[in-house]
Specification:
Number of helices: 8
Strand content: under 5%
Helix content: over 70%
Structural class: mainly alpha
Number of strands: 0
Largest sheet: none
Number of domains: 1
Order of helices and strands: HHHHHHHH
Shape: globular
C-alpha cells in the first residue's frame, strides 16, 4: 500500500486550536464521528464484496496484474478524492471525496482480506482480520489520545514522514520490479511509520485546520488508520 503522509496543502483560516473550547470539542467530535462512519462504510463494502464473491474475483485480478498498476491507480484515485475533500467547497463535494476514498480503500483491501480469510479458514485458526482490526483501532485510539493531550510538538515529523514516504514507495516499486520480497521487517517499519502519521495528522488537524474542514480532517485520519491496518494485517499474515 502506498505510504502517503498527506501531501495536501495546509488549510487556511482560523485553526480549531484558536477557537473557543466548545467549538473545539464539537469539531473533534464530528471529525471522529466521520472517521467511525467511514470505518462502518468500509466494513459494509467488504461485507458486500465477500457476500457476492467479488472479493475473490478482485484477488484473482490482483494476482494476475502488475502491482504497480494497481498501486498507481489507487494513488491517483486517492489524490482526486483528497482534492475534493480539501478543495471541494460544498459539503456535498467533500462527502463525495470521502466516499471515493473509502471505496478505493475497500477495493484495495479486498484481495489481502480475502487471502487472510482463506488462510484462517484453511488453518481453522483465529481470524487474522479481526486481530489486525482490533490492534489497529486500539493503537489509533491510543495515539490520538497522546496527540491531543500531550504538550509535545509533533510538527518535526512532517519532513520525516515526507521523506519516509518517498523511501517506502521507492522500496515498494523496487521490490515489484526486481521481484524482491520486502518481508517482515518492512511491515514493522511501516507500522511505525503509520503510527507517526497518526500522531502528526491528529495534531496537525487540531492546530491548523479550520472548523469547516472537518470532512478533510476525517479523510486524513481515515487514510492513516487504513495504512496502519494494512501493515498490521501484513505483519500478522507473515508471522
Amino acid at each position: 500500500m502506498s505510504a502517503q503522509p498527506q501531501g495536501m496543502p495546509r488549510p487556511m483560516g482560523t485553526p480549531i486550536a484558536q477557537q473557543p473550547r466548545e467549538v473545539r470539542g464539537q469539531f473533534m467530535t464530528r471529525v471522529y464521528g466521520l472517521v467511525i462512519g467511514g470505518i462502518g462504510a468500509f466494513m459494509a463494502m467488504q461485507y458486500l464484496l465477500f457476500e457476492y464473491g467479488i472479493a475473490a474475483a478482485i484477488a484473482q485480478i490482483v494476482i494476475d496484474t502488475n502491482w504497480l498498476i494497481i498501486l498507481g491507480g489507487f494513488m491517483v484515485v486517492s489524490w482526486m478524492a483528497n482534492n475534493l475533500g480539501h478543495r471541494g467547497g460544498s459539503r456535498g463535494k467533500q462527502l463525495a471525496g470521502y466516499g471515493v476514498l473509502i471505496a478505493a480503500n475497500a477495493l484495495l483491501f479486498a484481495a489481502p482480506l480475502w487471502i487472510a480469510n482463506e488462510m484462517a479458514t484453511a488453518a481453522d485458526g483465529p481470524s487474522v482480520i479481526f486481530q489486525a482490526a482490533m490492534l489497529s483501532i486500539l493503537a489509533f485510539a491510543g495515539l490520538s489520545f497522546i496527540a491531543l493531550t500531550t504538550g509535545k510538538d509533533f510538527s518535526f515529523m512532517r519532513g520525516i514522514l515526507m521523506w519516509g514516504g518517498v523511501l517506502a514507495l521507492a522500496l515498494i516499486v523496487g521490490s515489484v520490479l526486481f521481484g524482491v520480497t520486502l518481508g517482515l521487517w518492512f511491515s514493522i517499519a511501516m507500522i511505525g511509520f503509520a503510527g507517526a502519521a497518526i500522531l502528526y495528522s491528529t495534531q496537525e488537524i487540531y492546530k491548523n485546520y479550520p472548523p469547516e474542514l472537518e470532512i478533510a480532517a476525517a479523510m486524513s485520519l481515515f487514510s492513516s488508520l487504513a495504512l496502519l491496518f494494512w501493515y498490521v494485517l501484513q505483519f500478522l499474515m507473515r508471522r
